[in-house]
Amino acid sequence: MIKGVIFDLDGVLLFTDKYHYMAWKTLADKLDIPFDEKVNNRLRGVSRMDSLNIILSYSNQTFSEAEKEVMAEEKNELYREYLRKMTPADVSDETRSVLVKLRDKGIKLAIGSSSKNTPLILEKTDMAKYFHAVSDGNNITRSKPDPEVFLKAAEYLNFKPCECIVVEDAEAGIDAGNDGGFITVGIGCAEYYDKTKKPIKRLAELLKLI
Ligand code: BG6
Ligand code: MG
């Protein structure tokens, strides 16, 4: 029986994945590194530094750790400029309605995101009120595909992984969910991933699975 749903944030509940793309694109263009949506899909669910390392693997230059720190910080500042402009109107009616309906059914909800910017995003969009627990980039030591972020979310909800659904748009997130023993639901890019247990096209389809 499903007792909890753990949502990835970027690309599942919000379109902040576009802002990640735009910020990385600005940095990649500056460094003259080829970067497109296909490369960007490899960054979904992956931590900031791991994402930067993937982007830099397309360059023939090498960079010191200190230089990489500066680049990651620069990208984050560009990204946060977009986030600061977000408002509650950036949450779709469908997303709000799904969250409210799940809560009304007695399902406990959590965030399971690799992002350290989760608190800012939840604040700007007024979404924190829907969630019983938040597990994010600030409370983990290993990023997806490691299941840590979801295991912590399940622990905060007081449920076993098999009692929770994980909703993801990232292959790394589906791998993390499967590895942790969760039921994985894939949307967006993850709809087409062969390891996704239950693919959906729209978030509202989640209601039929519970
Ligand atoms: C994930 C995104 O949610 O968070 C990744 O899918 C991102 O693209 C990661 O790199 C870390 O985000 P942040 O906000 O801590 O840089
Ligand atoms: Mg995502």
Encode the helix/strand succession as letters. Answer: EHHHHHEHEHEHEEH
Overall mean pLDDT stands at 97
Radius of gyration: 17 Å
- Distinct small molecules bound, one entry per kind: 6-O-phosphono-beta-D-glucopyranose, magnesium ion
Structural class: alpha/beta
| Amount of helix | 40-55%
TL;DR?
The chain has about 210 residues and is an alpha/beta fold. Helices cover about 45% and strands about 10% of the residues. The chain folds into 2 domains: about 5-15 and about 90-210, HAD superfamily/HAD-like (Rossmann fold, 3-Layer(aba) Sandwich); about 15-85, DNA polymerase, domain 1, CATH 1.10.150.
Walkthrough of the structure:
With about 210 residues, this protein is of the alpha/beta class. It has 2 domains: about 5-15 and about 90-210, HAD superfamily/HAD-like (Rossmann fold, 3-Layer(aba) Sandwich), CATH 3.40.50.1000; about 15-85, Putative phosphatase, domain 2 (DNA polymerase, domain 1, Orthogonal Bundle). The protein contains 9 helices and 6 strands; from the N terminus they run E-H-H-H-H-H-E-H-E-H-E-H-E-E-H. It has a 6-stranded parallel beta sheet. Helix 8 links the parallel strand 4 (about 165-170) and strand 5 (about 185). Helix 1 crosses helix 4 and helix 3 packs across helix 4. The termini are close together. The model has no long low-confidence stretch (mean pLDDT about 95).
Q: What tags apply to this protein structure?
A:
2 domains; alpha/beta; binds magnesium ion; DNA polymerase, domain 1; 6 strands; single chain; six-stranded parallel beta sheet; Rossmann fold; globular; binds 6-O-phosphono-beta-D-glucopyranose; 9 helices; 210 residues
